[in-house]
Each structure stands twice: as structure tokens, then as C-alpha cells.
Amino acid sequence: MPHDDHDHPHSLLPSEPALRVKALESVLVAKGLVDPAAMAAILETYETRVGPHLGARVVARAWADLNFRALLFENANAAMAELGITGRQGEHVVAVENTPGTHNMVVCTLCSCYPWPLLGIPPAWYKSDAYRARAVREPRKVLAEFGVTLPEAQKVRVWDSTAEVRYLVVPMRPEGTDGMDEAALAALVTRDSMIGTGLPLAP
Ligand code: FE
Asked: Is the pTM higher than 0.85?
């Protein structure tokens, strides 16, 4: 359907998503529903300070410290708090452990629930209809498209996030990392490895 079709209700809106967002923002500000300074501060926080480097610190600590690891799987929020990580969209996190027998993968089939304090803002593909539908139906095929091929014997378990529960995948510690400190380990932990659509980097 052509986008300049005047019978189409969307023709009344700016066609570019950015313009639509701007228009919506203008209305909210004009009505006094949103404080532009507060909104700018939130965006700044998630663009620069909160991101996958925080989740990577948690994973690296879990690889290096058995007590922390035990706490992480028992009460992820308590473990996160030890590293000063708290915040909205991360109030109830459950950490799931990759093992030689099980690979975990996270999706939100309903919308795009995601552990923001650990991983920042979700990537566009995480929010796509295709990922949300296919992650559940054909996880191995989706993984292959991400460049991940798992041994047949390793089963794939898919976790569906909700507004209440967000998941953090704790990947297996890569071979050849004995003696590496937490900062060096954290550098191997990719965002996708904590969603389950990737694996950590090799040292
Ligand atoms: Fe959601």
C-alpha cells in the first residue's frame, strides 16, 4: 500500500518513526505529562551509564567467585545489589545457568520485557515480531542465524519474560580463562551471550 494514500489513517501522522516520537513527545510536554529534563536524564542514563557491561560484571563475578555464583542463582537481585546494580525493569531477575546439557535463551513473546539494569535498552531484533514468535517455535534455527550452533545433546530451554520476571543467562565460562581476573573475564561476556542468542568470546 502506498504511504501517501490519503484514505489510510496513518497518512495523518509523520511517516518517519522519529517524527512520530517527536510529535508524541511534544504533546506530552505541552500537556504537562512529561518533564523534558527528567526524560533527558533517563535517556542519558540508559544510553551511557546502564548497559551490558553491568550484566557482564555480574557474569564475570559468578565465574570467579563460587559464593557469589550460588547467591546469583538463589537470589539474583541480592547478588546484583552486592555490585550496586538495581533499577526499574529489573526488580525481579532470575539467573539461568548454561551447562553442557542445557542452553538457555530469553524472549518476551508478549512485548519486549528485558532486564534493563543489567543489559540496558533491548536491541531492535529482541522487540521484533519475528524473534518473539520464532524464538519459541524454532529456537535452534534462530540460534543458527545468530551464528550459534549447539551440540545436538545440549537442549535449548526458552524463557518467556514477563513484566514480573526478567531473565539473565549466565553463559559457561570459556576454556582457557584460568587465572584471568574479573575485568578480563567481563570483557568476554557479550550482550547476546546474556540473552542466550550468543556465546561468550574466546580469550
Ligand atoms: Fe514484554
From this structure: no
